[in-house]
Write a structure and sequence with these properties.
This protein has 319 residues and is of the alpha/beta class. The chain is 32% helix and 15% strand. The protein is built from eleven helices and twelve strands. It has a seven-stranded parallel beta sheet, with helices on both faces. A five-stranded parallel beta sheet has the order 2-1-3-4-5. Helix 4 packs across helix 6. The longest helix is centred in the last third of the chain and has 19 residues. It starts with a strand and ends in an 11-residue tail after the last helix. Bound molecules: (2R)-2,3-dihydroxypropanoic acid. The site of (2R)-2,3-dihydroxypropanoic acid (DGY) has 7 residues, from loops. (2R)-2,3-dihydroxypropanoic acid (DGY) binds next to loops. It comes from Amazonocrinis nigriterrae CENA67. Belongs to the D-isomer specific 2-hydroxyacid dehydrogenase family.
Amino acid sequence: MSKAKVFITRRLPVELKQLQEVATVEVWTERQPPPYDVLLEKVKTIDGLLCLLTDKIDSPLIAGNLKVISQVAVGYDNIDVAAASKRKIPVGHTPGVLTDATADFAWALLMAAARRVMEADKFTRAGLWQTWEPDLLLGPNITGATLGIVGFGRIGQAVARRAKGFDMRILYTSRYQWEPELEKSLGVEFAPFEQLLQESDFVTVHTPGTDDTYHLFSDRQFNLMKPEAILINTARGTVVDPDALYRALASGKIAAAAVDVTEPEPIPQDSPLLTLDNLIITPHIGSASRQTRSKMAKMAIANLIAGLKGHQLPYCVNP
Ligand code: DGY
């Protein structure tokens, strides 16, 4: 029997030996993702596809002999899961292993934005540090402030655990209210979205990118926030309307933001957002710890191998 064929859309930080035992593996080695027409050609002959969030896997790509799609990410908004389910193709993802790394990074952004770390670094390198000044680069307190967490799954809850150590009042909003035991152990209170926006000093986004969360943050929501509020987004760029974010930051409707994700990605070099000093932008690196990225790749490979063998994927989004 001939070996299964697999296409991997980028180099991964792990050994492929285990996968190569069960499949002939082709890896796309360019820095940029494979173009759509390359993917269209590949899917005609492969059994398994291992992809990243930069690959748009839409219905025409879910074709041929494909038996499994395995994504190296927890989010899978780039994949037409409904089309895959229709063809009974399992889609794997990598939940859990990136929770702490992403929560750590959200926390790093929150602290950097609040205490103006990027501006301070720029100021120092520009030779502007001449003396100690009582009102130089002031920011708000983090300890004791109110944090609003939008989306209270694994990563939102991990952020709450960090916030607890900073004696914060922690509000969360999500599709449903969690059990009182969990709320108590994390020290959080459920709040409707609008109340959370009105009362929070920091708002951090941890929702998936879906039709329901598309531009969840737009002019109306920024208008409800405090002028001193800081927005953090390590989830999906599509959750925040970039034009409304620009208006909110440029007009002082909110004080600052720090985002690891943008719409589109990468952010266009002529985006007006790049002109703002009260915005930190990083290139979607929330999960980028060495250990985490390696675990994500291993998990995606395990999903892929299971799919090639016709077994249930360990982490499947469409069981
Ligand atoms: C994910 O996994 O969905 C992140 O956005 C990338 O780690």
